Amino acid sequence: MTADLRAWLVEAEKAGELQDVRGASWDLEIGALSQVNYRRSVPKALVFDDIPGYVTGLRVLSGSVSNPRLLGSVLGMGWNHTDDTLMAELATAPGEWIRKAADFPAETVENGPLLANVDSKPDIDLLTFPVPRWHEGDGGRYIGTGCAVVTRDYDTGRINLGAYRMQVQDYGRTATVNIEAGKHGAQHLRRWFEAEGRAPIAASLGMHPAYLVAAGVEVPADVAEYSYVGAMLGSPVRTIAGQVTGLPLPYDAEIALEGWVTPDDKRPEGPFGEWTGYYSGSRDPILNIDVERVYYRDDPILLGAPPGKPPHDYSYMRTVMKSAIITDALRRAGLPGLRGVWAHEVGGGRSLLIVSIEQRYPGHARQAAYLAAQLPNAAYMNRFTIVVDSDVNPRDLGEVMWAATGRCDPETDIEVMKRTWGSRVDPLTLPGALAFNSRAVIDACRPYERLADFPVVAESSPELVADVSRRWPEVAG
């Protein structure tokens, strides 16, 4: 399967999953229409064209991974998925992609569509592209939302892709890159600063959404995201080395930039409407990229993935991917009796994690809770981890809260972990404070010692429900 965005858009249009929107302004209207789209029962991918102030053909894409058919296609799994079938196919896939990534190293090529146009200093102007101001409270125009920021490990040479927000600065000449401490990209930059005093950096700003998936989930540090995308799609991706930094960029990306960051070159950044559903950033100085080159195809497409109050652009993707990745990680950790995991969209796919188990021994529920709360794939910004019995659907918050109200004794079944991995985008993190958080692990399972005599659930058996539904279909709907 090719990783070309334009080929994917043709498929999306044939599948009825693409909607053309014309005449919306970069200033708030694209962002507001994207929000309206995400809150439809079945969102579509939106392509914005004829943007006022820009020539026809300079486009912005949003909603690319907002429903199971779109996300399934992006992951190389076809166009016919529902929530259930996608989760079933993803049950082991992320782990397989990690294990097979080494078999799909990226292929470096000398030329490609990305090099159709190359701008160098002093002629760089990022506002040549219709960069949106996504939210009314944003402090500027954000060119990097659906981006893949490229960094290199100074010691090993390993390439990392990360989805970090990027605000246009200096009237289009530069851009800040806001990377949370603890992320692989931040670790790479710190090591370069120690060794060289500056760090190379690049970013793909429009590309096949598979790169956004790889950049937006926690791929293990020893796995290259380009290889991960290759394993996902079943064939190696092709990259082009940047002319300044040598960092690899997707050869068929729509827009990309490269340059350098230094620890003292910073700009005020934000606020920005984040995945928590709140604005973050208070004009605190953030690392600024001294942009040396900008590459772009003819009539390029900027890939937008603006967050905000859930549901937002990538909250569905993150929920599905995180749920599958955490499920696989718990299985590989040896947790028995696992029946389901769901990283709820209301928590941005991070802050509310539900684990369903079939209890097998005393302490099993707490073991599941502690493991899930601190797995490397789940630890960042987790706030509530709730463990439920196997008769509770972890995707149904109504069922989860029913279990919590009837099977959880707050005095004995809720524990709090302190000084855990938080985030600057957490609305509870005070300006200037270190980004710790705390998290509650909630045992909403029936007490193990009362499994035999705990009150029976008062509802009709599945067999009886099936029988009456067959006989009275007008009631069953």
Automatic annotation (TrEMBL):
Task: Give start and end of each 3-octaprenyl-4-hydroxybenzoate carboxy-lyase-like C-terminal domain.
Answer: 316-444
Question: Which regions span the lipid bilayer?
Answer: none
| InterPro entries the UniProt entry points to | UbiD (IPR002830), UbiD-like_C (IPR049381), UbiD-like_N (IPR049383), UbiD_Rift_dom (IPR048304)
Q: Per the database entry, which stretches of residues form a coiled coil?
A: none
Specify the 3-octaprenyl-4-hydroxybenzoate carboxy-lyase-like N-terminal domain's residue ranges: 13-87
For the 3-octaprenyl-4-hydroxybenzoate carboxy-lyase-like Rift-related domain, which residue ranges apply? 110-310
PANTHER family assigned to the protein according to its UniProt record, in alphabetical order:
3-OCTAPRENYL-4-HYDROXYBENZOATE CARBOXY-LYASE-RELATED, FERULIC ACID DECARBOXYLASE 1
Q: Which NCBIfam families match?
A: UbiD family decarboxylase
Q: What is this protein called?
A: UbiD family decarboxylase
Biological source species: Kibdelosporangium philippinense
